[in-house]
Design brief:
The model has no long low-confidence stretch (mean pLDDT about 90). Strands 12, 13, 14, 15, 16, 17 and 20 form a 7-stranded antiparallel beta sheet that branches. Strands 3, 4, 5, 6, 7 and 8 form a 6-stranded mixed beta sheet that branches. This protein is an alpha+beta fold. The chain contains 20 helices and 20 strands. A hairpin with a 2-residue loop joins strand 5 and strand 6. It has 3 domains: about 160 residues, DNA ligase, ATP-dependent, N-terminal domain (DNA ligase i, domain 1); about 190 residues, 2-Layer Sandwich (D-amino Acid Aminotransferase, Chain A, domain 1); about 130 residues, Nucleic acid-binding proteins (OB fold (Dihydrolipoamide Acetyltransferase, E2P)), CATH 2.40.50. It is globular and about 75 Å long. Bound molecules: adenosine monophosphate.
């Protein structure tokens, strides 16, 4: 398939805001793709993704590289390109214009196909080390050198992982169902298990519902984690009978894959964090029988007390001097579920899974099975809740003992009961460099929630307090790499990270697109275990606003 066809299709749906219409148009487009490989690539590309969430490869193409490649084909300097972004809105549109005024054309003009683009992208992702920057610029220059204007627009957007089409996973999932006449639920389940909508689309096309149902969990491929809903009260949690009560550990979620010569650990965002946690890997090899997939929480413990959750994430991010960090931030793993034990277990009831968990895990100092009490006594739940809080954890999880493991779902089977005040998890979309002694730091951050229906980001405020100097140093390093636009001290970021923020009150305000503003927002922590799509929605902001006016 020609990339031109894909770019033309993207252009044709750019103005559509109705989810139903978008889904229908994408379904039609997918249905007509004959080649499986093309189908796979189109499904990812249309969401602005080059790799599925579980794949560790990254393009490593920042805005600086794109500027250089565009300069190579047009002679336009970075400053000029930045002016054009201000004028036109995004680098996609700028590339479209620049390529039209191109001074250099590749001699052997060859029409770009989806497969050829995939090859180039894989080559970019696989170049590392010395000379890789140069190689990437050459590859990108080659691409822009032969692209048409429209192709250039969408190549840039793909490289920046933002197609600006309003097409997220939900729409693509429904489009796959529609295109190949299979149920949305079955597509969803296959996706939660494989984490690869491209693969799911190909299975739906080649072998329909049967093929999708046959997709099974595999050791080595991460599975979306089951999530919990907020329990409003103890009473709500026990109204349907017995609950399995566990501490809600204040750490970070991991999924451990062990067996068939594989040991891999994934974070909640399904990033491979194996290398950052060597002591956990070693202990799993010693204490756990293969082949399994375990679900649990790693916590940092010092002098018998849990350290703040932030420290665990610091360990996750660590690539160098891991052993130094192992001493500074010692970890323990509390396992609470098992998804696979020489075969898939997700449809087995929780009570039975716990029994199997005990068979496979031999507890040690570093690996423990989370205690679980089955009860329907409110006093008993309260007692465990207080014990958890006193031990420095967050509260309790109340689980339905008869429930299956539902990957990727936030449902009533798992309820969480926490003691702390409600906070919001918001996407960081911009920021501002500080003044005086903070002039080398991005010291305030602009926040947005998600519009549930369109997926757009709506700003709700700006947070400038609650950070330690150490936080700001780390955040500046992180955010510097994802600046997409700059004007004076003001910067805009690629929406990639989520902050948890506390506030005193939510107010109605015309200042931001959301129609709300946070009074006295305070940074609590970087939730880099959460994906942007998991941030709070405008609906949640409204609910919290209503709640506060009621009480
Ligand atoms: P939240 O992040 O507030 O939505 O709460 C859900 C998270 O609690 C899970 O993703 C886990 O990281 C964490 N958690 C801590 N202890 C448990 C437990 N016993 N069972 C399940 N999740 C737990």
């Amino acid at each position: 398939m020609k990339f031109k066809e894909f770019a033309e299709f993207c252009e044709s749906i750019e103005e559509i805001s109705s989810t139903l219409e978008l889904t229908a148009r994408i379904a039609d487009f997918l249905r007509k793709i004959e080649d499986d490989e093309d189908l796979y690539n189109v499904v990812l590309f249309i969401m602005g993704k080059v790799y599925p969430p579980w794949d560790e490869r990254e393009l490593g193409v920042g805005i600086g590289l794109l500027y250089e490649a565009l300069e190579n084909v047009s002679g336009k300097k970075k400053e000029k390109i930045e002016d054009m972004i201000r004028e036109l809105g995004d680098l996609g549109l700028v590339s479209e214009k620049i390529v039209g005024e191109r001074r250099m054309l590749t001699l052997e003009f060859e029409e770009l196909t989806i497969k050829r683009l995939r090859e180039i992208l894989d080559e970019i992702a696989s170049s590392s080390g010395e000379g890789s920057r140069k190689k990437k610029i050459l590859l990108l220059t080659g691409l822009y050198g032969q692209a048409t204007q429209l192709e250039a627009k969408f190549i840039t957007r793909l490289l920046m992982n933002e197609m600006r089409l309003g097409v997220g996973e939900g729409i693509v999932r429904d489009a796959i169902a529609k295109a190949f006449g299979v149920s949305e639920e079955i597509v969803e389940r296959a996706y939660m298990i494989t984490n690869d909508l491209g693969k799911v689309a190909v299975a739906a096309k080649t072998s329909g519902e049967q093929g999708l149902k046959a997709m099974k969990i595999e050791v080595g491929i991460p599975v979306r984690m089951m999530l919990a809903q907020v329990a409003e009260s103890f009473d709500e949690a026990i109204e349907n009978g017995n609950v399995a009560v566990e501490w809600k550990f204040d750490g970070s979620r991991i999924q451990v894959h062990w067996g068939k010569g594989i040991l891999k650990i994934y974070s909640r965002r399904l990033e491979n964090v194996t290398n950052a946690l060597p002591e956990i890997s070693e202990e799993v090899k010693k204490c756990v029988k293969p082949s399994v997939i375990l679900d649990g929480e790693v916590i940092a413990v010092k002098d018998g007390k849990p350290m703040p959750f932030q420290h665990v994430l610091r360990r996750f991010r660590r690539k160098h001097e891991v052993s130094k960090m192992m001493e500074k931030i010692p970890l323990q793993l509390y396992v609470f579920d098992i998804l696979y034990a020489n075969g898939e277990l997700i449809d087995v009831p929780l009570e039975e899974r716990r029994r199997i968990l005990r068979e496979f895990v031999n507890e040690s100092e570093r690996i423990k099975i989370a205690d679980q009490v089955i009860t329907r006594e409110k006093e008993q739940v309260e007692k465990i809740f207080n014990e958890a809080i006193n031990a420095g954890h967050e509260g309790v999880m109340l689980k339905n003992p008869a429930s299956p493991y539902v990957p990727g779902k936030r449902g009533k089977h798992w309820l969480k009961l926490k003691s702390v005040m409600e906070t919001l998890d918001l996407v960081v979309v911009g920021g501002e460099w500080g003044e005086g002694k903070r002039s080398h730091l991005i010291s305030s951050y602009e926040l947005a929630c998600i519009d549930n229906s369109t997926g757009k980001l709506l700003r709700v405020g700006r947070v400038a307090t609650g950070f330690t100097d150490e936080d700001l140093e780390e955040l500046t390093e992180l955010f510097k790499q994802i600046v997409v636009y700059k004007e004076g001290k003001i910067v805009e970021f690629l929406p990639k990270y989520v902050f948890e923020v506390a506030y005193q009150e939510i107010q109605r305000s015309p200042k931001y697109e959301s129609g709300f503003a946070l009074r006295f927002p305070r940074f609590v922590r970087l939730r880099d275990d959460k994906d942007v799509s998991e941030a709070d929605t405008i609906k949640r902001v409204e609910e919290l606003y209503e709640l506060q006016t009621k009480t």
